[in-house]
Amino acid sequence: MDALLFLLIPVGVTFASERTSELSRCNNMNNESFRLLEGEAFYFSPISVNNPDLPEEDFTWYKNNPQFENITTEEENSIHYHGGALFFLNISSTDSGHYTARQTMPSGNCQLHHVTITVYNTSSRGQTTYGRDQNSQLNKMLTCPTPAQQTCETFSGIFTWYKDGSLLQGEHEPKMRINEASKAHEGIYTCMCTWTHNHREYNSSASRRLIVLDPIHHGDVQILSPVNNEQFVDKGYSIKLNCSIFCGNNVARSCEAIWTINEKNVTGMDGYHQTISTENENPSKYTYSTATLTIDKVSAQDFQHVFKCSGEGYYRSAFKTVTLKARESAIPLVIGCVCVLFASVCAAVLIKCFAIDLALFFRPFFPLSGNKDPRMYDAYVVYQAEGLQRATEDQLCSFIMSSLPSVLEDKFGYR
C-alpha cells in the first residue's frame, strides 16, 4: 500500500506540471469579475469569445481557486458549461472563486479566458452594484447593467425593476426613464431578469445606485477682484492680493482662480505664497474661486512685475492684470498742514490784537462805497497852547488848519 502511494504521488506531480506547462503556452485574455447574490443564476460568456455556441470540444472549463475542479457539461450540476458559456444555477457562497476556460483555436493555438466570481448574501445587495448613475440632467435614463441585460436578451427573459427592494409597477424594459428627477428618486435600482433554462425559471439581477446632482450651469467667467489695474502699496511691507472669480452654479470642479507673475507660475518663487479656494455658496449654489497671493516684503522689483489674475471655467476663461505703485509719503502733507495751521493761528492773533491798526492801515486801499454823506461835521482838536515854542506852535497850527482838514475831507469824505 505504501509503495503504491509513493508511485501515485510522482504521477500527480507530473500531471500538474504538464498542465501548467501546457497552459503557459496559451494566450491569456483579460480577467473579468462579477459580484453575485446567493440564490440567483448567472450566465457568463467571455467578451473575447465572439460566438459562445462554438462546439463544446473547443473549450475546457475548470475552477482553479480556492482548489482545482473540473467543470462538466452535465446540466444536472448547478455549474456547467455549453461551449464558451458558463452557467451558474442557484448560486451559493461556495461558488466564489476564479474560473478559467481553455479554448482551442482552429489554428491549433489556445486562449485562456478568466472570470472571478464573488458571492454575497441577499442582505448585501448594496455591495453588488454596477457603479453609480450620477449627473445633473433633469431627466434620467437608467440602463440595466450588462450581465442581467445580456442574459435576458439571450434567453428572451422578462425585465422587472425594483427601487431599494420595492417593485416598480409597469417597468419591463431594459431602460427606465425618470422624469424631473429629485433627491427623492435617489437609491439602488435593481434590474431583475427572469429567464428559463431547461424548463426551469431563474432570476438574474444587477443594480445601479442613482445619485441626483444639483443642476449645473457653466457661465462666463467673471473677474470680481481686483477691480483696478493699479494698486498702491508701501515698499518694504507685506501685502495680499485677491483674485476672485465667478463661474456659474455647482461647477466647483471646473472653476479655478490663479495668480501668475510675468506669465510664470508662482509656485516655488521665494517671497511669494499662493492659496486657492473654490466652493459652491449655499443656498444659491453659486460657484466662486479665490486665489490669495501673499508678498512677504514688497521690493523695488515688484513695481516692475505684471501680476495676472486668471480665471479658468469649463468653456471660457478671463484675466486681469495688476501693477503695483509706490504710495507717496504722507510726511510732506503733514508738514504743509502744520504750516497752514500755524499761519492761521498767527493771523488770528494779529487780527485780534491789532484790529484797529490794521483797519486804518488798509482803509486807503479799500475806500468806502455808496452815496456821499451830505451832512457837515465839526472837528474839535484839544491841545496844549501855553508854554510852546514858536516853531512847535507853528507846526501844530499847520497840522490843525491844513493837514488834518485835508486828510478828513479828501481821504475820508468828511465835509
UniProtKB/TrEMBL annotation:
Gene3D superfamilies: Immunoglobulins
PROSITE patterns reported in the protein's UniProt record: IG_LIKE
Entries under Pfam families matching the protein: Ig_2
Organism of provenance: Oryzias latipes
Domain Ig-like stretches: 106-207
Designated name of the protein: Ig-like domain-containing protein
Transmembrane segments: 333-362
Keywords in alphabetical order: Disulfide bond, Glycoprotein, Immunoglobulin domain, Membrane, Signal, Transmembrane, Transmembrane helix
Signal peptide interval: 1-16
Taxonomy, superkingdom: Eukaryota
Keyword Kinase part of the UniProt annotation: no
